[in-house]
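Q: Convert this sequence to structure tokens.
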Amino acid sequence: MAYQAQRHKRVVEDLELLNEDGTVAHVLHVDLDPDNMIVKLSRKYTELTKALVEVESMKREGMSAEETVEAVEKLGRIEIDMIESVFGEEDTKTILTFFENRYEEMAKEIIPFITSVVLPQINKIRAENRKLAKAGYKKRGFFRKM
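A:
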């Protein structure tokens, strides 16, 4: 009997972009592939949290108007990069067009989807993959004591 290797089903989450009247304008499908997404997303999430800490620190110290503009632009770029790491370039363009480049509203609506749906699902998938890999090694005797 031959050894069998099986592909696992992919997990896909949907995000619906709704018009003001509640009708669905776009449905975006997010393929939750932890191997592909987690590295890009975690880097961007780390950059975003660092930038937020910097902005809060600058607020306490009193920011000039120029510094405020720079900080807001930096946060906006990081948010868009983070959104792109989840949705890809085409769907990010769809999101930007849908929100008519209103970055604050876009962030308020999209970032919670990433933090409360995408990240927990990816962590769950990664944990399951680790468990399966560990069970596979034990089954084949890879970690057997000699």
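The mean pLDDT is 83.
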